[in-house]
């Protein structure tokens, strides 16, 4: 991601010189007085830097592992009753760090328990380098597979000063975003009835622009076209899902679209299940001693003593389902 602050380069240079000079003065003074007690802050800074490097290194390696072991979309679409797969009522929110493809923890879950919910949503929570994300632009929603598969992808974006809402509000806003996506996609297809709309079949939609704009959102340069996105005009109010159909009873909705919206409402009544990965990380055989110390000891110690993803995401324990995954980095 490239973030443009639209500030003068001179202002950025002044910021660098001002704070950089303070850091240089402090560090040089610590070096001069190193043997007289200044070794303590230097050692503390080095220790904290090593901890941050280990955490960052292992996190990047875990993401690369997920990226290389993700499952193709064809595998998900091939799952059906012929293979003994059962679709149960309700909504499954599968949390993943990937913005494309099917995460390996979901394939591991289906392999051991051949059933998943009628409504399937792959949720990716992203932190963006801005203070606040407007509520109308928070949810980036797309479809995974054909409409009758009832599978979606949702990227939830938070700024570094945003406070995550309680889980009930999150569920309501997420389902409202899904219903808005279904309605907007149907409207788009209606306006382009004489044109090919295959490019929008797996598109992502976000409220945040007054123009329909296509752009690519991907993990890397080799991802397929399912990450194409569409920016749509922001909504002035947030609609509740249970009132969505009532407000559009007289609209020209197709039977398939109305059935999909009714399925969303019915699944919401059965509740949401949160599927998270429970990772077990270890260095691969043949790794160097430094890598084994960093991953097997340092990173695992940090991971055991920090908040888990279920706590950070405020997932209710009664609705939590964890899938064990072994990461060999």
From TrEMBL:
Annotated InterPro entries: K+_transporter (IPR003855), K_trans_C (IPR053952), K_trans_N (IPR053951)
GO CC terms: plasma membrane
Keywords annotated in UniProt: Ion transport, Membrane, Potassium, Potassium transport, Transmembrane, Transmembrane helix, Transport
Pfam family membership, one: K_trans
Domain K+ potassium transporter integral membrane: residue ranges: 2-77
Domain of life: Eukaryota
Keyword Transcription regulation: no
Coiled coil stretches, renumbered: none
Domain K+ potassium transporter C-terminal residue range list: 89-328
Subcellular location: Membrane
GO MF annotation, one: potassium ion transmembrane transporter activity
TM annotation in the entry: 12-32, 38-58
Membrane topology: Multi-pass membrane protein
Family stated for the protein in its record: Belongs to the HAK/KUP transporter (TC 2.A.72.3) family.
Name of the protein in question: Potassium transporter
Organism: Ensete ventricosum
